[in-house]
Design brief:
Elements (H helix, E strand, L loop, with lengths): L9 H8 L6 E4 L6 H9 L4 E5 L15 E4 L6 H7 L5 E7 L4 H5 L25 H7 L2 H11 L5 H12 L7 H8 L8 H16 L2 H15 E11 L2 H13 L7 E2 L5 E2 L2 E3 L9 H6 L7 E7 L1
Parallel strand pairs: 1-2, 1-4, 2-3, 4-5
Antiparallel strand pairs: 5-9, 6-7, 8-9
């Protein structure tokens, strides 16, 4: 499990769930099973429902009858809990982003460090991959992706290089793509820039913003009073959505007031300041550097 994915802020996440013996919990991003293993340690005779759409995680599943594993996108959490006749749960954990495993497998195309196909699908049976985005999206669609999801400042130049190159031949590999966009990559922030470009493509391919929004809105009805929502985010776009939702109960962050003019929200923040990894954890796991943990309790 540890070789597949090293969980970020593991102890803090599990503590945030406030696990009760015999409770029912959901880990919507199973991955290497690190968080789930810790939950099962504290669960007693309770129940854990885990989601992951990546077929590679099958090798990480324990033989434990307390675990119900669902190989689907976690945006369907409401439907599957209803299928298993689970009305309310005691806690929900989401570790957003891409697993260490996916970054380290060249064929998955998530990292600019390796040669591989332009893929980036978390669900390997999905129709849309990064190559289709690069080769088939029109100029305006590409502008939106790199400007909004990647927060790329020179997005017009980036897109012009892509559209010019693909008119000659399809762009299908990471090395080919890097060569195409090379002229617009700032030398001083090369790795950061490329990470932002690849992030933008990954978000589009996997509809990450839409999935996150659907998931969060489901949690309001699925959590028991006193139930915990624990979310680990890794980039500003998803963290902003999580922060808005936990503070207001709405994705857009619009705060509603009750009859007396008091701010109302279905959640109470457990940590008003985000929890971030310490230097020791970052030294052992560089991916932890961008991790942000938010915890809220259902009123």
């Amino acid at each position: 499990m540890d070789d597949y994915h090293v969980p970020v802020l593991l102890e803090e996440s599990i503590e945030g769930l406030n696990i009760q013996l015999g409770g029912t919990y959901v880990d919507v991003t199973y991955g290497g099973g690190g968080h789930s293993a810790k939950i099962l340690e504290k669960l007693g005779d309770g129940k854990l429902i885990a989601f992951d759409q990546d077929i590679d995680v099958n090798d990480n599943l324990p033989n434990d009858n307390r675990l119900i594993f669902i190989r689907h996108n976690f945006k369907y959490i409401r439907h599957f809990l209803r299928y298993y006749q689970i009305d309310k749960v005691d806690g929900i954990l989401a570790d957003l982003g891409v697993s260490s495993h996916d970054f380290d497998v060249p064929d998955r195309g998530f990292s600019f460090r390796f040669e591989g196909n332009l893929d980036m699908r978390m669900n390997q049976s999905a129709a849309l991959d990064a190559s289709k985005v690069i080769n088939e999206y029109n100029e305006a669609q590409l502008w939106t992706i790199f400007q909004e999801y990647g927060e790329i400042k020179n997005w017009r130049h980036l897109v012009s290089l892509i559209t010019a190159a693909r008119s000659n031949e399809p762009i299908t590999s990471t090395s080919q793509f890097l060569k195409v966009i090379g002229p617009c990559v700032p030398a001083k922030i090369e790795k950061k820039y490329l990470a932002m470009v690849f992030q933008a493509l990954r978000i589009e391919v996997n509809n990450e913003i839409g999935v996150l929004s659907d998931f969060l809105e489901s949690t309001t009805d699925l959590l028991k009073p006193g139930g915990r929502l624990v979310v680990l985010s890794y980039h500003s776009l998803e963290d902003r959505i999580v922060k808005n939702f936990m503070r207001s109960g709405r994705i857009d962050g619009v705060q509603e007031n009750d009859f007396f003019g008091n701010r109302s929200s279905p959640f109470e923040l457990i940590n008003r300041k985000i929890i971030i990894p310490g230097e020791k954890e970052i030294a052992l796991n560089p991916r932890a550097r961008s991790g942000k943990l938010r915890i809220a309790e259902k009123r």
